[in-house]
């Protein structure tokens, strides 16, 4: 779980400066949190893409913003990361003489099934059984998400900039 801590002093300074009503402040805070969830989605998708060495489109379609929840400690933004295995066919798999290559990944003895649109490899010497080939991403993604610095100066600066903008928009 990623923890982000925004100090109330910074928020209170902006509120004192602009003097919005309570309703305007709450609406601006809700919109700011929604925008910051999207900002965080973009940054994590970009970082995970580099870490896992796969296109961002694969990461983005597995990432969902579920909700913003008010808790006793403040607000909570919940992001869902789908970290199941990625089938090699989605990584641009191509048939080669030795097997299948998908980017930097190589699987000797594998083949692309035209009817099932998947990459398979035979388990033994017989025709069947075959198993679907996929890239495991959970371990690397978990280590990246736990080790990444999301509580950075960039996040705080963007948060306060967005909050100020939203308050000004609400008060127009």
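-> sequence recovered:
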């Amino acid at each position: 779980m990623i923890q982000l801590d925004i100090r109330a002093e910074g928020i209170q300074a902006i509120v004192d400066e602009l003097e919005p009503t309570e309703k305007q402040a709450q609406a601006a805070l809700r919109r700011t949190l929604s925008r910051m969830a999207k900002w965080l989605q973009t940054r994590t998708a970009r970082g995970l893409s580099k870490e896992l060495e796969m296109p961002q489109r694969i990461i983005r379609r597995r990432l969902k913003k579920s909700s913003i929840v008010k808790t006793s400690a403040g607000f909570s933004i919940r992001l869902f990361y789908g970290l199941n295995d990625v089938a090699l066919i989605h990584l641009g798999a191509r048939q080669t003489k030795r097997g299948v290559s998908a980017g930097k990944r190589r699987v000797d003895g594998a083949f692309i099934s035209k009817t099932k649109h998947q990459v398979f490899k035979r388990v033994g010497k017989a025709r069947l059984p075959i198993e679907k080939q996929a890239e495991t991403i959970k371990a690397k993604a978990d280590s990246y998400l736990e080790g990444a610095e999301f509580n950075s100066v960039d996040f705080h600066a963007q948060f306060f900039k967005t909050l100020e903008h939203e308050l000004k928009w609400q008060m127009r």
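The helical segments are 8-18, 22-52, 56-60, 138-147, 153-171.
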